[in-house]
Design goal:
Two copies of one chain form a homodimer. The first copy, chain A, is α/β, with parallel strands linked by helices. In chain A, helix 1 crosses helix 8, helix 2 runs parallel beside helix 8 and helix 9 runs parallel beside helix 11. Chain A is globular. The interface between A and B is large, with 50 and 50 residues.
C-alpha cells in the first residue's frame, strides 16, 4: 500500500524529488568528484536558490553539514568560550542546551511549560552571555515562537549572538534573517528530502567570534569548524566528501519552491493549519496541546488524544496515513501532524475527514 | 553521453544501486522515522550484512557516521589524551595526523616517500603512544600496505590502539580485523554508493579507553562521541537523524556482495589490477607511480603520465571514460584508475584498450 507520511520529519518527500533523483542518476551526480567544476556548479546553484527562497541577506553564508544536531555541536565548539543561554520549550531546544552542558559550558536553560513559550521579548539574559539559542518551531510540542518576537529579542540584546532553530519551520516561517546571527534547518522536514543534510546559515559576526576564540586558544579545531566550513564554502565546496546527492536535490527542490512562490507556500500552510486546529478543537477526543493560539505551530500540529493515541495512529496506518506520535514523555498520548509544503490541501482534507470518520 | 566513472571515489555506482533506490522510494524508506521499528530493522540488516562480508569478529561494533573525515576527528577526540603516531604515505594518511595536531595532540608523523611505504613492521613507536594510525590503501598515491604487515605491527605493539583506514580498500582488501582496534571506510569508494556515509568499526578496547578519558575529564563529549554512537548502536539506531537512504542502500549492496562472494570480488580485483599495471608498465607514456610491486594498490592504480595527464584525461572524457586526476601536488601529472567491485572486467579491458589506442 502506498503510504502518505504526515510525520514531522523524516516525512513525505517533496513531490518532485523522485524525478530529480532519476535525473541525478542519469547525469552521474552521485559519481562526480566533490572537487570538480561540475560539483562546484551544483553547490553554487543550491546556495543561490536558498538565498532567493529564504531572502538571505549580504554578510550571511551557507555551510552544508550532516545534520542540525551537528550544527548544535559545532556552534558550541566554535562560538562559545563560557556562557550560553537557551530558551527551552521542548526536547529539541533542550538538546542544544545539553550540547552546551556536555562541552562544559556555563549554560542556562530558561524552561517554558511544555506546549507553550516563555516570552522571549521580556527575558533578562545575564551579562557575558555569548550565545542565545531558541527554536522558532519546537518540533516535539508544536510550540511556535511568533516571528515578530525575534526582532524584539534582537533589539534587546544587539551584541549577543543569536542562534535560531528553523529545523522544521523553514521556509514556511517568514523569518527575517537580519534578526539572528545564525539559523539552521534539516532537509527532511519542510524541504521534503531524504535525511542526511543540515544547512547552517551564519553571518560575519559568527566568523569574528570564532577568530577571537581561535586567537585565544579556546577554539575546538576540526574539519567542520565554522572557519573551515567557511574556507571551503568560499570555493562552493565542503571540507569533506559531502552528501552530494542531497546538496543537488536541495538545490532542485528549492528552485521548485522559488518557482511556485514562497508566499503561495506560506498561504497554503496557513490554510492547512486552519484545517488541523479546527479538527483538534472540534473533535471530542482531540484537543490542541498548544493552548495559546499565537504559539500554535504552522508546520507541526500536536494534539492530545483522549484515552491514548495508539489506536488512532494504528487505524490511520491501516489506511496508509502515517502521522507522528508524541515525542518523548508524550509517546502514546499525542499525535503530531506535519503540515509541510509537500502536503497538499487535498491530502490534508483527506486526513482530517478520515480522522473525523474513524472510531477511536 | 553515458559516462563510466573510474575515479577513486565518488565513483561509478554499484550496478545494483539504481534498482535499490527505486525500491526504497516505493517502500517509503526516506520517509520513515529513524526511531521506528521499521528503521531499526534496516540498520540491523545492514550491520549483519557487513559483519558477514567483512568477517567482523565478536567484540567489534559498527557506528554510522557522516564521513571518514568525521571518524578522524571523533577518534582523536575520544581515544587520545596526548600522544598519537601516524604512518603517513600520502594526503589522506596525513589528514589524520593533521586532525590530531589541530586538536593539540603530541602527534608524530612517520613520513614515507610518496608512492611508497615505510616498513610498518620495524617502526619504533614511542612509549606512551595511545593511537597508531595507518592507511591500508593511500588513495592519493596508490600505495598499499600488505595485509600481513598489519599482523606484525599488532604483535609488536599489542597494547596500543591501532586505527586502520580502509576507506578505499574494503572489502577488496582481506583485512583480519582482529589485528586492529578500529577500522573505517566511506561508502562512495568500493561500495559504490552515493557519498555521505562513513562506517566506523571499533572494538571494546576503544570503548574502555573512551571511558577512561571520560572519567578523567579528557573526553570531548558530543552527540557523535564514540560512547554516544555506541549507546544508540546497541539499539540499532544513531545519535541523530542519519542518512537513512544510504544505510538502507549499504545493507542491500553489502548483501549483494555477500551473495556474489567476497572471494570472487577479490579475485576479479586481482585480475583487473594486472590489466592496469600491465598497461602502466608497457605503455611508453605511462609508468606506475608505485615502483615496488608489493606496495601497489589493488583498488587504485596511479600512473605518471609523460608530458602531463590533462590531454589523456580529456580525450578519455570525450569517450565517456572518466579517470581520476593526480591528487594535490600531482594534479596534472598523474592519472588514478579505480578498480572497485562495480567495475567489470569488460569495462576495465575497454578502458585499457582505449588508452592504448589513444594518441596523447
Amino acid at each position: 500500500m502506498k503510504r502518505i507520511f504526515f510525520t514531522p520529519g523524516p516525512s513525505e518527500l517533496y513531490f518532485t524529488v523522485e524525478q530529480h533523483i532519476s535525473n541525478a542518476l542519469k547525469q552521474g551526480v552521485a559519481s562526480i568528484s566533490h572537487r570538480s567544476k561540475e560539483y562546484v556548479a551544483i553547490q553554487q546553484a543550491t546556495e543561490e536558490a536558498l538565498k532567493e527562497l529564504l531572502n538571505i541577506p549580504e554578510g550571511y553564508h551557507i555551510g552544508f553539514m550532516s545534520s542540525a544536531t551537528e550544527i548544535w555541536a559545532r556552534s558550541i565548539e566554535n562560538l562559545v568560550s563560557t556562557k550560553t543561554y537557551h530558551f527551552v520549550n521542548g526536547s529539541f531546544s533542550e538538546k542544544y542546551y545539553k550540547a552546551a552542558i556536555a562541552q562544559g559550558k556555563e549554560a542556562i536553560a530558561q524552561n517554558a511549560e511544555l506546549g507553550s513559550n516563555n516570552d522571549i521579548t521580556t527575558a533578562i539574559i545575564p551579562e557575558g552571555t555569548e550565545l542565545i539559542t531558541l527554536a522558532q518551531n519546537e518540533t516535539s510540542t508544536g510550540a511556535w515562537i511568533p516571528i515578530e518576537a525575534i526582532e524584539k529579542l534582537r533589539n534587546n540584546y544587539p551584541d549577543t549572538l543569536i542562534a535560531l532553530d528553523g529545523v522544521s519551520s523553514l521556509p514556511t516561517a517568514a523569518v527575517d534573517i537580519n534578526n539572528v546571527d545564525m539559523l539552521y534547518f534539516s532537509v527532511q522536514k519542510c524541504f521534503g528530502l531524504p535525511s542526511g543534510l543540515g544547512v547552517w546559515i551564519y553571518n560575519d559576526r559568527c566568523l569574528e567570534k570564532a577568530e577571537q576564540l581561535k586567537a585565544t586558544g579556546k577554539f575546538h579545531d576540526t574539519y567542520n569548524s565554522i572557519l573551515n566550513v567557511h574556507k571551503f564554502g568560499l570555493k562552493h565546496q565542503t571540507s569533506c566528501t559531502p552528501n552530494v546527492m542531497n546538496i543537488y536535490l536541495l538545490g532542485k527542490i528549492t528552485q521548485d519552491m522559488v518557482n511556485k512562490g514562497v508566499d503561495q507556500i506560506r498561504n497554503e500552510a496557513k490554510y492547512k493549519s486552519v484545517l488541523i486546529y479546527d479538527l483538534f478543537e472540534k473533535h471530542e477526543k482531540l484537543s490542541p496541546f498548544v493552548k495559546e493560539k499565537q504559539y500554535r505551530s504552522q508546520t507541526v500540529g500536536v494534539a492530545e488524544v483522549e484515552n491514548g493515541a495508539t489506536e488512532l495512529m494504528n487505524k490511520l496506518a491501516e489506511k496508509g496515513l502515517i502521522v507522528g506520535g508524541g515525542y518523548s514523555q508524550f509517546k502514546g498520548q499525542h499525535i503530531r501532524i506535519a503540515n509541510f509544503p509537500t502536503h497538499s490541501k487535498e491530502q490534508m482534507e483527506m486526513l482530517v475527514d478520515t480522522i473525523n470518520d474513524l472510531e477511536f
